[in-house]
Design brief:
Layout lengths: L21 H5 L9 H5 L13 H4 L11 E4 L1 E12 L2 E12 L2 E7 L8 E13 L2 E9 L5 H11 L3 H4 L10 H6 L3 E6 L2 E6 L2 H5 L4 E23 L4 E24 L8 E28 L2 E8 L3 E16 L4 E6 L9 E8 L3 E10 L10 E11 L4 E4 L6 H17 L2 E13 L2 E10 L11 E13 L2 E16 L12 E17 L1
Antiparallel strand pairs: 1-4, 1-23, 2-3, 2-23, 4-5, 5-9, 6-9, 7-8, 9-10, 10-11, 11-12, 11-13, 12-16, 13-14, 13-15, 15-18, 16-17, 17-19, 19-20, 20-21, 21-22, 22-23
């Protein structure tokens, strides 16, 4: 894996938060959410249309509506995470509720003899759920989390007194580490260096027991307004405006303990509790077309702009350190170094742009949808993860802010890449009953990674439609491979945990045409 160097972080003020590359993936790399009908068919919606999901994928698909419709799509998600860290395996589960596209479609009257029509839709969905637990731990005789704080303090070129004050330049990291003597300066051969207390254990060839428990909750939601036109023959055009809303909360508890029986090696244990939230909203746009060269064949193309978010981070950390020889115990909150307040940072983030190319074959494609017998469809989606960016929301950013975001965006460009996602699915209709099945594959967004990273979905579902009422139920099984880096060092190779996550999603949609 390519190293992610801490040197790209510039500490701007006591209330500044260092945004990290992982923020990009959180808001860009996730499977397509949809109504139960479309989830059962693998999430395909690039050219199928006729479903409320179209406003979030290819808004031209709203143009297939000729009647009004109201839809509600609740769901239940069951997460299981299996981790492997330095030879130790762990498992955790976390369940929660979710919501798929829910809203209203208004079909406007046909306006001329050429059978042209149009439709408008308003809907809300949970694009991504953050409800999860990741737990990993194991023995490490190579590195310590304290080394990240030591490297950070060394790079600041500040005195200890400059850092240990109520307006510290590093209130969440180096300042608590210095205050609790997790790190300290020592002089060797006339040179002063910064060293973490756990390094004395490593110097003896002993191992540290490390443990990470990370709990996250919240979601990425979006309110979507879509409009589409149908020329009554071959073409459909559409556009939508989305208002994404982010509510993300995380709590990370990392502990490190001396496993040796030596009580003279200075270090006993430390814990680092990081409470972090991100809240805000943004704006995005989508344009799409669907072309029907034959009545039974559809081609779709959609382009999504990046989502431009105005975000606010809030953070508080707590550190406890226990030392031996001499005995010493201390606990401190980051508030002590941030004017007795939770830290806050406001900034702008843009997510990845994407483009979707799709093709569908509809069995017995005719005007009367009650006589259609199903479809098979495929979506090919390109997502430019490396194009995501951060920037200051200040009217006149300082030179430090400008330099910081320039360096951070450079890291993102090198760390991520553009990649392809693929979805395939279909539906068969038997009078009032429908059967669906599909799959999706979401490729590796990293330009280099220590372990294989991808996501795959397998899905199936049933539907019922009769006299203007419809209901669908689907089950989606997600298999995800990813990794987590607990801390990053510039002077040593980074250690990481492999994460294999499975998620079962039971989705239900009920609606009525009126």
């Amino acid at each position: 894996m390519k190293k992610i160097y801490l040197s790209f972080i510039v500490f701007i003020s006591a209330k500044a938060m260092a945004q990290v590359p992982e923020d990009i993936i959180r808001y860009s790399w996730y499977p397509q959410n949809a109504t139960a009908r479309i989830l059962g068919a693998g999430g395909v919606m690039g050219s199928v249309g006729g479903d409320l999901t179209a406003g979030f994928v290819n808004p031209a698909g709203i143009g297939f509506y000729h009647t009004n419709e109201a839809t509600l799509s609740p769901g239940f998600v069951m997460n299981t995470s299996k981790t492997a860290y330095r030879g130790t395996a762990m498992k955790d589960t976390k369940n929660g509720f979710a919501i798929g596209p829910s809203g209203v479609v208004i079909a406007l009257p046909k306006n001329d003899s050429r059978n042209r029509s149009s439709a408008f839709a308003i809907a809300i969905t949970q694009s991504n759920s953050f409800d999860n637990i990741i737990h990993y731990g194991g023995l490490n005789n190579y590195s310590s989390y304290s080394q990240q704080f030591a490297e950070e303090f060394s790079s600041l070129n500040k005195s200890i007194d400059d850092v240990l004050n109520s307006n510290s330049v590093a209130p969440y990291t180096a300042a608590p580490a210095l205050y609790t003597y997790l790190i300290d300066t020592i002089t060797i051969g006339g040179s002063t260096i910064v060293k973490g207390a756990p390094e004395y254990v490593l110097d003896q060839g002993k191992a540290l027991q490390q443990d990470m428990l990370k709990t996250t909750k919240g979601g990425l939601y979006e309110l979507n307004l879509a409009y589409a036109m149908n020329d009554g023959a071959k073409w459909l055009w559409g556009g939508s405006i989305g208002i994404p809303i982010i509510n993300y909360e995380s709590n990370s508890l990392f502990t490190e303990t001396d496993t040796s029986s030596d009580h003279a090696n200075h270090f006993s244990s430390f814990s680092y509790n990081d409470n972090f939230t991100t809240k805000g909203a943004g704006l995005n746009g989508r344009l799409g077309i669907i072309y029907r060269p034959r009545e039974y064949f559809r081609l779709g193309l959609a382009v999504h702009t990046p989502s431009y978010f105005m975000l606010t981070d809030s953070r508080e950390t707590m550190m406890t350190t226990s030392l031996e020889n001499p005995l010493f115990n201390a606990t401190v909150s980051s508030k002590m170094f941030a004017n007795n307040q939770r830290g806050e940072a406001k900034y702008i983030q843009s997510s990845a742009w994407r483009a979707i190319l799709s093709a569908s074959y509809v069995f017995r494609e005719i005007e009367d949808v009650t006589k259609q017998r199903g479809f098979i469809s495929a979506d090919l989606e390109y997502v430019n993860y490396k194009g995501s960016k951060f920037s200051s929301n200040a009217d006149q950013p300082t030179d430090d802010q400008t330099a910081y975001y320039k360096q951070l965006n450079g890291v993102i460009k090198n760390y991520y890449k553009g990649n392809i996602n693929f979805r395939l699915g279909g539906e068969l209709k038997f009078n009032t009953i429908m059967v669906r099945a599909g799959m999706g594959y979401y490729g590796n967004p990293y330009s280099a990674a220590p372990s294989k990273a991808n996501k795959m979905t397998l899905s199936g579902g049933l539907g019922y439609r009769n006299k203007g009422f419809f209901t669908d139920i689907s089950y989606v099984y997600l298999m995800s491979n990813d990794f987590d880096v607990p801390y990053r060092l510039s002077g040593a190779l980074n250690t990481y945990a492999s994460i294999k996550q499975t998620r079962g999603n039971i989705a239900v949609t009920a609606g009525v045409k009126f």
